[in-house]
Amino acid sequence: MDIKIIEMKSEDWSAVKTVYEEGIATGDATFETAVPEWEAWDSKHLRTCRLVARKEAEVAGWAALSGVSSRCVYRGVAEVSVYVAEAARGMGVGTRLLRDLVQASEHDGIWTLQAGIFPENKVSIALHRKCRFRIVGRRERIGQMQGIWRDVILMERRSEITGI
Q1: 82-106, pLDDT tens digit by residue?
Q2: pLDDT at residue number 56
Q3: β-strands 77-84, 112-117: how paired?
Q4: Containing H/E element for 98?
Q5: Which strand ranges, in their side-by-side order, compose the sheet holding 51-55?
Q6: Which helix (H) or strand (E) holds 20?
Q7: Handedness of CA 64, 27, 123, 137 (dihedral sign)
Q8: pLDDT grade, residue 162 (50/70/90)?
Q9: What integer pLDDT is reported at residue 51 of this predicted model?
Q10: Each residue of 17-27: pLDDT tens digit?
Q11: Does the structure show a pLDDT above 70 at 28?
């Protein structure tokens, strides 16, 4: 599959939103129950390190970073979001997105990437391991979805290039 990873633009939002909705619908991608409007999403994510995977004209996935704290000591720490369109799953899109996101983050001075993943989302855990994230813990019963307590696996990747 010929995939191009490029910078996400605001014009991509409609397609990005659709991919995000597909992830939410799985019940194992996020605690979110609905995609926010562009303005809310835009304000929550870093202005840099926003990527889309394109297969011809179609958005096959997206990845972005959000800051973990406004405190200056955490300026090099960010949380990862990676979503792959339902039709593109199992084709290496997530790996390409996450690898390029790691590279972009290091270029942007990010030294630690973190992810919170439901333990049931084994594909996402495997993807992050493949990109050299490690499991650092498990938050038990951290939040409820539809009245059911959910755990979250905490993963992180420390750069060997930035912040050493």
Answers
A1: 999 999 999 999 999 999 999 999 9
A2: 86
A3: parallel
A4: helix 93-107
A5: 4-7, 51-55, 58-67, 77-84, 112-117, 148-158, 134-145
A6: helix 13-26
A7: positive
A8: confident
A9: 98
A10: 999 999 999 99
A11: yes
Separation CA 88–CA 137 (nearest Å):
30
Predicted confidence at residue 1, as pLDDT, reads 59
Name residue 79's amino acid: E
Q: How far apart are CA 134 and CA 129, in angstroms?
A: 6
The H or E element spanning position 142 is strand 134-145
Query: For the chain, what are the domain ranges?
Result: 4-115
Contact at 8 Å (CB) between 70 and 10? no
- The residue written with tokens 């499991």 in the block is 135
37 contacts: CB under 8 Å, gap ≥ 6: none
- Assess contact for 110 and 76: CB atoms under 8 A: yes
Q: In CATH, which superfamily holds the domain spanning 4-115?
A: Gcn5-related N-acetyltransferase (GNAT) (3.40.630.30)
